[in-house]
Amino acid sequence: MLTINTFNAISQRGLSLIEEDLNYYLNGSGDPDGILVRSKNLHDFEFPESVKAIARAGAGVNNIPIDECTEKGIVVFNTPGANANAVKELVLANLIASSRNLFSAVGWAQTLQEHGDDVAAVVEAKKKEFVGSEIKGKKLGVVGLGAIGVLVANDALALGMDVVAYDPFISVDAAWRLSRDVNRAMHIDEVWAECDFVTLHIPLTDKTNRLVNGSSFNKMKEGMTILNFSRGELVDESTLGQALESGTVGKYVTDFPNPRVLSMKNVVPVPHLGASTVESEENCAVMATKQLKTYLETGNIKHAVNLPDVELPYSGKMRLTVMHKNIPNMVGQITTALSGFAVNIADMINRSKATWAYTMIDLDHVLTEEEQAGLKQKIESIEGVVSVRLI
Ligand SMILES: NC(=O)c1ccc[n+]([C@@H]2O[C@H](COP(=O)([O-])OP(=O)(O)OC[C@H]3O[C@@H](n4cnc5c(N)ncnc54)[C@H](O)[C@@H]3O)[C@@H](O)[C@H]2O)c1
Ligand SMILES: O=C(O)CC[C@@H](O)C(=O)O
Known about the structure:
The chain has helices spanning 12-19, 66-71, 84-99, 102-109, 119-126, 147-158, 172-177, 188-194, 214-219, 237-246, 259-262, 278-298, 330-339, 369-380; strands at residues 2-6, 24-26, 34-37, 53-56, 75-77, 139-143, 162-166, 183-184, 197-200, 224-228, 249-254, 267-269, 318-325, 345-353, 356-363, 385-390. By secondary structure, the chain is of the alpha/beta class. It has 3 domains: 1-83 and 275-306, 3-Layer(aba) Sandwich (Rossmann fold); 85-95 and 133-269, Rossmann fold (3-Layer(aba) Sandwich); 308-391, ACT domain (Alpha-Beta Plaits, 2-Layer Sandwich). The strands form 3 sheets. The protein has a 7-stranded parallel beta sheet, with helices on both faces. A 5-stranded parallel beta sheet has the order 2-1-3-4-5. A 4-stranded antiparallel beta sheet has the order 14-15-13-16, covered by helices on one side. The radius of gyration is 25 Å and the shape is elongated. Residues 58-60, 80, 83-84, 87, 143-149, 166-167, 169-171, 174, 201-204, 208, 229-231, 255, 272, 274-275 line the site of nicotinamide-adenine-dinucleotide (NAD).
């Protein structure tokens, strides 16, 4: 039996894939084989030794200590693209709503009941204070052209906007999906200088932390609206307040409110709703659960952030999986360890991603419990090996 524990509210569509499988316990013990999580911060979490994999039902993995997990032999998955449409729709909604002052106007209209039969007259007298602008013909900058950025860029074009985008690391897949009418910014400063709206769709990493900062604000077109549905830390809050005060930034729409940002003027706080649709929560939960179960049951890896995709059809009687550093002679040492157990290799695969690698070897017969323990111990003692499983 395998155990998967969950953090956060995971959609029932995903949980049923565990509950209805007789080989699994859901939230069954303190020593789970896998963890399903959404936004819970796991940086201070003590991972039990039993944990072999974590699946993040969502895109951002900044809540998970990836390097620590990798060193402990834990594979970390996310669900690329599974919530992209939900985020795109909310970004477009906020693009229009912020341009039309919709939230403050509606907030005001909700207070009018006391005017009784005069409501219509009060509305007509005051509505000029909420006059907005159309987004058609305005310039939108999209920073990050991954699953979400591409959808936003393409649909903004359809709404009549000029779109300029910046992503020096764009994937070939994303480039294929991007409309050729999206203009390419060669430097992020072009986005700051030219755009009426900028929307951020990049992961939070050491390199992108405070990507939008005092130097960016100095280059911005006066009155620009920034939409941040990626992560709060991408914007330097110590200089944002002044940029909003001076009008350099006309509005800051953020899915990540905190006390500091809430005290600033012209902030539109959204309570982290980017991925909060029934459809997106189901997509993420189902994808995360399937990836996690596949890894636990077969060792095959799809959409891990710390290891490459590795798939091998099961062709032997027993499977050996080894997670190890991407250094010379690892496969040689693993097969040498196997040679002491008089077992033939039916098939094998080795793939690497940056400094880490993964080797799967199908064996032509089932080893005894004693042999399995001996083989595991031998391979675990190889320098650079962080996880060994026999499935
Ligand atoms: N608000 C929400 O509920 C919500 C939901 C989903 C995702 N997100 C956030 O949005 C982020 C993006 O999601 P996604 O699904 O599009 O991810 P993705 O991985 O598909 O795309 C990210 C893109 O950013 C690009 N990029 C990385 N560094 C960059 C830089 N310095 N400058 C420009 N581009 C850069 C990458 O090349 C990639 O194309 C996630 O990491 C997550 O933090 C938030
Ligand atoms: O789980 C959520 O609601 C938010 C997910 C979102 O921030 C993500 O990065 O995918």
